[in-house]
Specification:
alpha/beta; Rossmann fold; globular; 16 helices; 7-stranded parallel β-sheet; transferase activity; 3 domains
């Protein structure tokens, strides 16, 4: 039996799930011959993984068809489900040049031309097949003929540069599969690639896939969970309290909460929320508590927007930056590292609550039976860039079993009591509700996702 697999890595988002977890070691134990078909700048050979560098890029029109598909799908979802929130998933393009303005006109024309469900299916087919015969596609054909894998598995469904490799595999009769990368991806119309099989986190996500893409059949869907949370169940990965505190010069008498930063698009005023949490901690400490904040910024946010408050509240805040690195210059990419998986896990293990704006870190923390506080108010400023509260009305947040999954910080005054409640571990109901939510959006048990993925790949091949 041919057990050779090419794991297509079109961008860096799949590194954490499939290169930095135990995913490959589990596959090797099952006699899989694993090679990463790697289009990132990360050198996987440095961590002992086999790789083939994937060179080339898609035709420039392919990206315009992708943008048009997303635009048309979001308009279609808005009309079909009578939900204006789908329009919130659109990001206004930057029109700094005539070329960008022309591209936008083409995208808008194509989106209008292919509006409606039947036309959308035609547009998806056109996008899936557009690369056929082009230079990048031909290079992929040659690679696949040389390697002769039993299956090509794509680590996420979004990148346009995954289209040519998957189309080449299809044309050679090689089974293809893709992993739906994140819990919010399907309502956002980010399914760009077309494959024989789709690997999803849960039964809930499987139903979403059919809801948004009715041309996909149930037999094409494999419910596996995601390896994303498996490191939290790996013995010895998280540092002990003594090791962690010593490494980052933390006060051994202090209890620390985690403030998890968001990207500047999701939370443009995130630094003001960090300030508010720091003020609350300072007040609590002045009344006899001994609490600190570990600030983990969003890995791709290198702005200086937090600097003022990191300085002003240096007695309360310790900033521990994610261990992401700029890997090479071709894509100017900021990519995760294997070391950051252990760091994030260690931060969670050694803090008592996470506070953030609408982050999936709630699931990371509930893996440790620890609660989350969701910030749900706007700062009192004149020029508000975004009402962050709208995020909690997004489609993926409606999957929660009840509002009790987290502590809702509806004003600055709510921060202190929520910190105290979490510190006293008076959190049983919230943990139970968050656990139910976790089981709904990610197949339980969460630590067996890799085994389920390999079983499904075995069935496919």
């Amino acid at each position: 039996m041919n057990k050779k697999i090419l794991i297509l890595l079109p961008d860096g988002v799949g590194l954490r799930n499939f290169a930095f977890t135990n995913f490959t070691s589990i596959g090797k134990e099952q006699d899989w011959d694993i090679t990463f078909w790697n289009q990132t700048a990360f050198d996987l050979s440095k961590i002992g993984l086999n790789e083939l560098k994937l060179e080339g890029k898609p035709h420039f029109l392919t990206d315009l068809y992708k943008r048009a598909k997303i635009e048309a799908e979001l308009d279609h979802f808005t009309a079909k489900f009578n939900e204006s929130v789908y329009q919130e998933y659109k990001f206004p393009p930057k029109l700094k040049s005539f070329k960008e303005k022309l591209k936008l006109k083409i995208v808008q024309f194509l989106a209008k031309k292919y509006s409606g469900e039947k036309n959308l299916i035609k547009l998806r087919e056109k996008l899936a097949n557009f690369e056929r015969g082009k230079a990048f596609y031909k290079e992929c054909i040659e690679t696949l003929k040389n390697e002769q894998p039993a299956v090509v598995f794509c680590t996420n469904q979004r990148p346009v540069n995954a289209l040519a490799p998957l189309l080449a595999a299809k044309d050679l009769g090689i089974p293809t599969a893709t992993f739906i990368f994140s819990w919010d991806n399907l309502p956002k119309a980010t399914k760009v690639v077309k494959t024989d099989y789709y690997f999803v986190w849960s039964d809930f996500m499987a139903s979403e896939l059919i809801k948004y893409y009715p041309e996909v059949s149930e037999k094409q869907i494999k419910v596996t969970g995601t390896p994303q949370f498996e490191p939290h169940f790996t013995q010895g990965l998280a540092h002990s309290k003594s090791t962690f505190y010593k490494k980052y010069n933390l006060d051994p008498e202090r209890s620390y909460l985690c403030y998890s930063g968001d990207d500047i698009t999701t939370a443009p005023h995130d630094e003001l929320y960090l300030r508010d949490v720091a003020k609350a901690v300072r007040n609590l400490n002045n009344s006899g508590k001994n609490i600190g904040i570990i600030f983990r910024r969003c890995p791709v946010d290198f702005s200086d927007r937090y600097d003022q408050f990191l300085e002003e509240y240096q007695d309360e805040i310790i900033s521990i930056d994610p261990l992401w690195k700029q890997q090479g210059s071709q894509w100017n990419a900021i990519l995760p590292t294997k070391e950051d998986v252990a760091l994030q896990t260690s931060i969670i293990a050694n803090t008592f609550v996470v506070i953030n704006v609408a982050s999936s870190m709630i699931f990371d923390f509930v893996s440790y039976k620890k609660p989350c506080g969701y910030i749900n108010y706007n700062p009192k400023i004149k020029n508000l860039k975004k009402d962050s509260r709208i995020i909690y009305n997004y489609i993926h947040f409606r999957s929660k079993p009840s509002a009790k999954v987290a502590y809702w910080i509806n004003s600055e005054k709510d921060i202190e009591p929520i910190i105290l409640k979490s510190l006293k571990k008076n959190t049983i109901e919230t943990i139970e509700e968050a656990t139910e939510w976790f089981k709904k959006i990610n197949k339980d048990p969460a630590n067996e996702s890799s085994e389920r993925i390999w079983k499904a790949l075995n069935d496919i091949s």
